[in-house]
Amino acid sequence: MPSYRIIVDLSDRKLHLLDGNTVVHSYPVGIGKMVTQTPRGEFTIVNKQNNPGGPFGAFWMGLSKPHYGIHGTNDPSSIGRMVSAGCIRMYNDDVLALSKLVPVRTRVTIRE
Questions:
Q1: Which domain holds residue 107?
Q2: Contacts of 32 (CB under 8 A, 6+ apart)
Q3: Is the pLDDT of residue 58 over 90?
Q4: Confidence label for 54 from pLDDT (cuts 50, 70 and 90)
Q5: Which of 16, 25, 67, 71 is catalytic?
Q6: Comparing C-alpha atoms, which of 67, 50, 69, 68 is closest to residue 59?
Q7: Distance between CA 68 and CA 102 in Å, rounded?
Q8: Can you tell me the distance from the alpha carbon of 53 to that of 67, in angstroms, rounded to the nearest whole number?
Q9: In terms of CB atoms within 10 Å, which end of the chain has fewer, N or C?
Q10: Distance of alpha carbon 99 from alpha carbon 33, whole angstroms
Q11: Beta-carbon neighbour count of residue 103 at 10 Å?
Q12: Is 25 tagged catalytic?
């Protein structure tokens, strides 16, 4: 049984899925703007929702910091840029693939 955790590297705008200490997938992400920066620290996924509506694309995974999450986007050109209100944006296909692998309570580390 895999022991997944997520590391988000803000400096290179990538989300890494690890099984133990091995990176098994890396995805490009969009992150928070200078004035609404993505929070750094240790969090967990607390909920998951398919098709949340609005700008959140195909899937939402809420973090233990209220109002922040990892989600899809209806604006694929925003991936790789500092554009969000602090959330971590992924391509819809990527967030759907990730959501199938990681359960609620998965650890998420967000770092510079």
A1: 4-111
A2: 38, 82, 84, 85, 86, 87
A3: yes
A4: confident
A5: 71
A6: 50
A7: 17
A8: 15
A9: N
A10: 24
A11: 9
A12: no
